[in-house]
Write a structure and sequence with these properties.
This protein is mainly alpha-helical and about 350 residues long. It is built from 16 helices and three strands.
């Protein structure tokens, strides 16, 4: 009997000293002076990116290679910024663990982002940080230019398609009853057809836009020549008028959506397909045309709701893309009033 009691006590100690358990304690300590939005974002970064790799390991067992493997796995999904923040958060948890006797050293200090992450590619696709999104969305709502341009910016934010795919859109590509935008292969960078599920908010924009441009083949006809679509600089210039010159582009909404959706636990394959990044050959093109359509439809509606709540300044509700016992443990425990 004595041996059984000792064994049980050892199991309890092991559980208390796991990375997942210490993470919960760290969140409870760290969150006091943080905004609810920041806390939610950090919890989800933990649940979606860090815990699957480190959660079950003991704090004293984790070494630098374990952390490197976690960071690289996140980067491999195309989420370099998330990977960098995951490394920073892991280091914070280890500092807390040392202060409270759960660990003796911080292996995250052995690693620097530049040692393991690929250099960030410089491009013309400037984008703001996620924390700047609320102000941008409010600026879009009061944009003093034409309604058509404002709707174009709102629609690219909701769908995060490429700018060329948006401005070249024709009314014939839309199945509003099925809530789908079917972009043909000859308009796609990957030269395969692409399906964009349309959230309720996108359908509302299209209903209003039809009253303005429904007489044209194009969703967004040019101001000077309605026989052609609007210029590919229209959205960029509108963002510049809002004060975002060199800070944000139409293409920037793609990077923002990717980062935020990855942080909030959505499947990498769903995000990549929605971004039309996934490599597709001629054999698989027809299959991938509507691949994961149901979960992608749910993801796009959640994204639209997130943008609405962010623009209004309301407390952003959790996305529903997370699952798994470690995620549930962290989210439930971190929200308790203990």
């Amino acid at each position: 009997m004595a041996a059984r009691k000792i064994s049980k006590s050892a199991e309890q100690i092991s559980s208390e000293n796991s990375f997942a358990s210490v993470s919960v304690k760290w969140v409870e300590h760290w969150q006091d002076d943080k905004s609810p939005r920041h806390v939610d974002s950090t919890r989800r970064r933990l649940a979606a990116n860090i815990l699957p790799s480190l959660g079950l390991l003991q704090m004293t067992e984790i070494e630098a290679p374990d952390i490197v493997a976690m960071v690289r796995a996140v980067e491999a999904r195309g989420a370099r910024d998330v990977a960098k923040r995951a490394l920073e958060t892991t280091g914070q948890i280890f500092r807390y663990a040392i202060a409270h006797g759960y660990a003796k050293r911080n292996p995250a200090t052995d690693v620097r982002p530049r040692d393991i992450l690929k250099a960030s590619l410089k491009s013309n696709y400037a984008r703001i940080e996620a924390k700047e999104l609320p102000n941008l969305l409010r600026q879009i709502e009061v944009y003093p230019g034409t309604h058509v341009t404002r709707f174009a910016i709102k629609l690219i934010a909701l769908t995060f398609v490429r700018t060329s795919e948006l401005i070249g859109a024709t009314w014939s590509e839309f199945d509003l009853e099925a809530a789908r935008w079917n972009i043909p292969a000859d308009r796609m960078k990957m030269r395969t057809p692409h399906v964009v599920p349309l959230a309720r908010q996108a359908l509302e924009i299209l209903d209003t836009l039809r009253e303005l441009t429904g007489g044209s083949d194009w969703l967004f006809p040019g101001d000077r020549n309605v026989a052609k679509p609007m210029s590919n600089n229209t959205i960029l210039k509108a963002l510049e008028r809002m004060g975002y010159k060199g800070k944000m582009t139409g293409h920037g909404f793609r990077g923002l959506a990717s980062t935020i959706l990855h942080e909030r636990g959505y499947g990498h394959e769903h995000i990549e397909l929605q971004l039309a990044h996934a490599p597709r050959n001629a054999v698989s093109a027809a299959y991938n045309h509507a691949l994961y359509l149901e979960p992608r439809s749910k993801m796009m509606q959640d994204w639209a709701d997130f943008l609405d709540q962010t623009q209004r300044g309301a407390r952003v509700l959790p996305f529903r893309g997370l699952s798994g016992p470690l995620n549930e443990k962290l989210l439930i425990a971190a929200r308790s009033d203990k």
